[in-house]
Task: structure prediction
Amino acid sequence: MTFINKKIMASQKFGFVIVDPVSGSGDQAVNFSGEKHTGRLQRTINLTVTTNGGAKKALVVNQAAAAEVVRSDSPNASVQKTGGNVTITGKSNSTKLTFSVTPAEENGLTLQLPADYTAAGKTTANGAIIADDPGAAGEFVWSITISDVPANVTIEELTATLKVTAAGGQTANVTVTQAAGDSTIELDKETINLDVNGTQQTVNVTSNDSWTWAQAAARTVSRMMGR
Result:
């Protein structure tokens, strides 16, 4: 039987499910929709519908699990030429994450990975099972801080790849680049004195760059030597 006068109320959210309409009268279609699920496991909510007269029916609503995933918030990270720390962040729903670093074949950046990282706000050992499995219900935030990167003493950018691997083999890669260092040059002598015959003497040059000798004014040299 269909009632002529229907009382219909607006939609209402229960957990992750939206019921539209949440109440009505007589014969009527009710729509059920859900928020996007990022958890690795299926989720379920139980609902009941009750008439004014006390009759009840139950409904189980399941939502499919999301695929296992790991990703970084950015594909790139940078380190100052003077060195220091770099923090890399991302999201995942995996049961564990394993971090590894590979320096580039040319101008490779050497990074020392820490033993621990942060998963869903909890300190977690690299490659260990994450406590309480937050990825079962949804994506969580992960972060790793690589500390004490040494200064770049070359004039080239240095790079390495941070690889994050989920339990299921999914990966995320981040290119870590350190800015080029300053051009430097040192001499092991400030003055040499050639004898009357001009006998050869040697000055050892230490530099990270190409260099060329040129004649300079005496005052320029004095100023460079702090005189």
User: Anything to note?
Assistant: The first strand starts at residue 12 and ends at 14. The radius of gyration is 33 Å. Confidence is low (pLDDT under 50) at residues 1-5. The helical segments are 218-224.
